Amino acid sequence: MGDGQWARVLEMVKKIRAMDMEVCTTLGMLQPSHAADLRAAGLTAYNHNLDTSPEYYAKVTSTRRYEDRLETLKHVREAGISVCAGGIIGLGEGEKDRVGLILQLATLPEHPESVPINSLVAVAGTPFEAHKTPSGLDLVRVIATARITMPKTVVRLSAGRMSLSPADQVTEGSRVGGDSRLLDEDGMPTSAPHTGDGVHGGRQQHLHRRHAAHDAQQLDGRRRAHVRDPRPQEPPRLPAVPRRRRQQPQRRMRKRVSA
């Protein structure tokens, strides 16, 4: 990315933040100076997926190293930007690779604030066009594992949901620990639910819109996107009900009748 393009990205971030909205970008590998620029512009979160396990990564791409992706996440974290990092299932990986992906995310110095779980959408003309679409159960197992290993992280239901039945979406959502879903308005390269359909489906699954991060409680002095309060919440207290004094039965006075 040239200097002119980078300046336009920073300007877009500033303008969106000025509209009282959160901003999450996906810009590939970052150097520390780039992360600092984004933080100064007001960036809320940065998305940079690990995609798969370290062992399988070389079979997915040869233009990047797995260590480079981890370094980018480190730069984002050190700049004080919320980390959004997840992966994709259906790349031809095995179950051990899916476990390896979650293990990498769960053993980072700090858990990501957001973990999107994507199911590969095979596109004609790509090397993965013949790959079998993961089943709903495959997604459920990955989401549930992410929820167990990263209990305070927001687990997002992302690409590939259109191939699932409504029942599978409910199962992979609120029943196994999915917190949110990503919506789209013709902005993704593959088919995704439109905002209206996604919001309606989310309400059916008891998923609700979250308030903006800057209106929520700050954690560790840094802005973080969509983070649930990690402190244990006390159950709501019911108002005290005044105890009613038991009334003694009134004794009837008998009139004495003189003989």
Overview of this structure, please?
By secondary structure, this protein is an alpha/beta fold. The protein has a single domain (3-215), classed as TIM Barrel. It has seven helices and seven strands, in the order αβαβαββαβαβαβα. The protein has helices spanning 3-18, 32-41, 66-78, 95-106, 136-149, 166-172, 195-204, and strands at residues 24-25, 45-47, 82-84, 87-89, 114-119, 154-157, 180-181. The strands form two sheets. The chain has a four-stranded parallel sheet with strand order 4-5-6-7, with helices on one face. α4 packs parallel to α5 and α5 runs parallel beside α6. It is extended. 31% of the residues are buried. The model is unreliable at 185-189, 191-206 and 211-232 (pLDDT under 50).
